Amino acid sequence: MQRFWIWLSRYASPPVFYRTAGLWRPWLGWATLLVGGPALIYGLFFAPPDYLQGESYRIIFIHVPSAWVSMFAYTAMAGAGAAALIWHTKLSEIAVVAIAPIGAGFTAITLVTGMLWGRPTWGAYWVWDARLTSELVLLFLYLGVIGLASAYGDARRGARAAALLSLVGLVNLPIIHYSVRWWNTLHQGSTVRMFGESSIHGSMLWALLAAALAAKLYFVWSLLGRLQLRLLSAESEKAWVARELKLEPSDA
To answer: Cα–chain-centroid distance for residue 143?
Structure first.
């Protein structure tokens, strides 16, 4: 356990993390393209039409991965928030603020694609369905974290306040996930199961899972980039920033 904490403290160091993120980002970017490109092309143009929804179901190859990542990102943000409140590490505080815009983007895509899917399926772009409403609450939580973090003159105090809000908002995630089971909603139930047989056909399933993997890879790629930029800003007066940016001592 002690070795783990030594390893963690080493890689949480801003200069070490900055260099490590720089090494990983190109690989993550290429992996996102190689996994997500074929999945989206196949899903949007070549997968067989659904026997009930016809061609309109194809939006799931964007909607479902975005929905999964919207909750995955919030979980990551809350985890960073817990670390920020417990250990007061600068990297975890920055991570809370860096994750929020990415998560908000995925949540917005989820809501927009859900509305486009709902129009031919339900006859309306928006219904106050429990799944849709709780996903909208998730977007407001992300926006609240962004707003709260920027409301303080001291960036670290703002990050800790945002971290607290992220932890409070965790209660919304099980509501999103189980809303279809708890209430009689219009939103269809889960067709992909981790344990047991999925009800979606295999010709569609592989593309959906590949698109979901690509969305998560993109999330990590984008997060590392945002963390790098925020670390440079937060540590702008440190010598390691000047070395990384190859600035002259007089410019540091």
So the answer is: 14
So where are the chain's domains? 58-191+201-244
The separation between the first and the last C-alpha atoms of the chain, rounded to the nearest angstrom, is 38
Let me know how long the chain is: 252
What's the pLDDT band for 29 if we cut at 50, 70, 90?
A: very high
Say if residue 226's pLDDT is above 70: yes
In terms of Cα–Cα distance, which of 147, 73, 137 is closest to 105? 73
Please provide the DSSP assignment of 184-239 as one string: --SS------SSS--SS-HHHHHHHHHHHHHHHHHHHHHHHHHHHHHHHHHTTTSH
Distance CA 75, CA 103 (A): 10
Mark residue 38 as left, alpha or beta (left: phi above 0; alpha: psi -120 to 50; beta: remaining). Answer: alpha
Query: Does residue 26 contact residue 34 with C-beta atoms inside 8 Å?
Result: no
107: number of CA atoms within 13 Å, CB side? Answer: 26
List, in sequence order, every residue forming a beta bridge with 54; answer none if it has no partner: 50
CA–CA gap between residue 54 and residue 177 (Å, rounded):
26
pTM of this prediction? 0.91
Q: Specify whether the CB–CB gap between 233 and 242 falls below 8 A.
A: no
CB atoms within 10 A of CB 239: 12
